[in-house]
Structures are given as structure tokens and as C-alpha cells.
Amino acid sequence: MVKVVVSFKFFDKWISFLKESGFEVVYWGSEYPPSKDWIKDNVRDAEGLLCSLVNRIDREVIDSAERLKVISTFSVGYDHIDVGYAKQKGIRIGYTPEVLTDATADLAFGLLLAAARRIAEGDRLIREGKWNKPWTPDFMLGSMVYGKTLGIVGMGRIGRALISRAKGFGMRVVYYSRHRKEVEAEYMSLEDLLRVSDFVIIAVDLNESTFHMVNEEFLRKMKRSAYLINISRGKVVDEEALVKALREGLIAGAALDVFEEEPLPQDSPLIGLQNVVLTPHLGSATTETREKMAETAVFNLIKGIRGEPMVYEV
Ligand code: GLV
Question: Does pTM top 0.85 for this prediction?
């Protein structure tokens, strides 16, 4: 029997599907990720590994696998996998782009609106019993979204999906990306983008060149009235520099779905700041999207083992 390892808490339905498809499935069913040793021990004689972003698939894990043909990740990001090394060893990598593009772009817009219009802050205020004064013209004023300028950093699938949403809000859309793209937005240098944007959405993938791309210098170049939104990976933002910028009013606010460390530690200074909206890595978290991601990841795994073209291969 061909062995596959599933190293994160997955859907029972798809575990059953793999078993019914004739695979021997070693399944880590806990929401707390397994140790590296557990993955190493179990992947030794497996032909497929289905993982998620909670698993670190480094050289050591890859070296422990003797028959591995495919690593299929239940995510669009693959910064948790040493892709270069895996490929060098002839291991194919599957991932789940496209199916989560719209869900993630929707969340980015939700965060943008929440930050600009102080939605989460207002909700908090009511729940804490602090809505105790009548309506006044200057109460909880935020920033206009309609007609403002959106700067998108990174123009991949999610960047494109952001453009159509922004057009609905009458926004001018500018973008910066390593390469110029055929899109309905103005290409700019990062410097110019930061100078003109009222909202900056980070939509790059995490790699060596984007690690801490949003640092103090980046934040200083933004307008003092601007907002930063991050739906990519936490490590793209130097969180310490962001906290400082939010405290000192270098920017008006931020909205973050991803963090340098996840779950976000309870003692993170971000938690004490009112001008930041925080969500717990929900970019692709819709029922419909997660179902499509599961199907894609499972078919990538099976096709990779069979030597067939995958649905999405890195
Ligand atoms: C989620 O963050 C993903 O990479 O799919």
C-alpha cells in the first residue's frame, strides 16, 4: 500500500477519501502541530506528504524521507517548505492558489474598511459598556474610503482581485511589483506608491527579498494619514517597527491578519493599541474556499504520487 502522511488537523471527509482511494494514511489529527521527529519518523517510507503552514518542512525533514514524491501543502504560501531543496531531490510541490484569491481579497477589504471606519473599535466600545453619551458630530471619526488612493504592493492573483474591489469603491489604484503587469492600475516605484497612497495593502509572498520589507523606513515614507493592511505573511512586516509607528502616529492605523508569530502572543504590544485591527489568519477562512483548498491539495497529492500533472504545482 502506498503510504501518505497528513501532518495537520484536516477534514475527516478527505482523510476517508484518501483511505477509500487505497492509500495507507498516517494522520496527525491534533490542532497542535506534531514535532519535527514525528514528521521525520512517519515520512521515512511515505510517497506523499500533505502538510499545512503549521508544519516546517526543512532539509532535515526532507532528508529523512526515502521515497517521497510529493509535498502537497494546504495553502497558497509555501515559505514553510524548503522548496529549492525538495526540488533538487526530485520531490514535487503542490499548493492551492486561485481557489482562495477572492476570499483573501474580500478579507483585505474588510480589514481596510474596519480600520478606516473604526468598526472593530466601535464594536469593542459598545460591548465594554462605553457607548454612554448621545450622538455628537465629532464622535469616532474615521477616514473616507470612497474615492481615496489604494496602493497595492505585489501584483499577483490577490493583487488583481483587489483592483476590482477598489474600483467599486471609486478608488484610484496604484501598484508596485517586481514586474510591470497588464492590469487596470498605475505602476509606480515603491517610494512613489507610499507617497500617494491612503491605504497600502501588502500582497507579496514571503521570501528572502520581502522579509521585513515593511520596516521603519517604509513606514516613514507613508502618509501620516495612511493605513497599512497585511494579508500576506507576518514576517513581511517588522512588527516592532510597526508598533513604534502606530504609537508615534507615523501612520493612522493598520489592519493585520498575519503576524510574525502565530498565534499572536498575548503580551504582544499590538493588542494594547486601538488603531490596529487584528484578525487571526482568516484570509482563506470561508467554508466554500476551504473545501476547494482541500480538494485541490488532495488531488495535488494523488496526482503527484502518480506522476501526473498536478492541479497547481510550484
Ligand atoms: C494561507 O495563509 C495560505 O497561504 O494559504
Answer: yes
